[in-house]
């Protein structure tokens, strides 16, 4: 008793599709990738200049630079957007090229943990320098 | 489970166009920049840890392999940035669509890819010239 191929019983396939696929919430990762991209345009240009100034500096200068509130806040936003945007990109790459289901699932989970860990580590490091590190010098 | 779904006509049948270069480079640079994100976190953690940890990080960045990687990361970032801006523009519907995809009628659509690639290289060189001048001026 099925009206459509793949239908089981009387449940409409549309009901199954809602909430599982690209029905309203499906564009969220795509949209977030664009939003983080827009944020990263000015942030990465700013970051290039920051890196240029810091790479040859001595340690106290590095701490002072990171501990400037504007730098610290932008660094935190930059790190979060960077890992978020990167994770969304890597997610699509995994979806495209890893065709073994269990391996793809494992890598997708590892990717989420890794991105969260990376972003968290970066944010915590900036906070540590901002709130404590710079005061030692 | 082997993938038995039918394949679309494969790459060989398409005429080569610059957007293939852009697409491939966008992915490769994106992948490479993810490694760069790890370097960023390494640097931040090193700064938060100690003088010695920062010195190790700075020494890696100043080594030959470090400098080559930093140069490639700079170009990757700038290409991904320029091409990403074109991506955003086309996502917004500008300079995109069936009517504008004919090379003879819309050379702009097909030339932006080369322009982006060239601009990213020029900007990379510019950044490193500025950096070397800055460092040279600082050391003098």
Determine the number of helices of chain B (DSSP H or I, runs of at least 4 residues). 4
Return residue spans of chain A where pLDDT drops below 50 for at least 5 consecutive residues: none
Largest sheet of chain A: none
DSSP summary: helix tally of chain A: 5
Distance, first to last CA of chain A: 77 Å
User: How many extended strands of chain A?
Assistant: 0
Q: Which structural category fits the helices and strands of chain A?
A: mainly alpha
Sheet bearing the most strands of chain B, described?
none
Number of strands of chain B: 0
Helix and strand run of chain A: HHHHH
Question: What's the shape of chain A?
Answer: elongated
Oligomer: heterodimer
- Measured by DSSP, the beta-strand proportion of chain B falls in under 5%
The assigned structural class of chain B equals mainly alpha
- Please bin the fraction of helical residues of chain B: over 70%
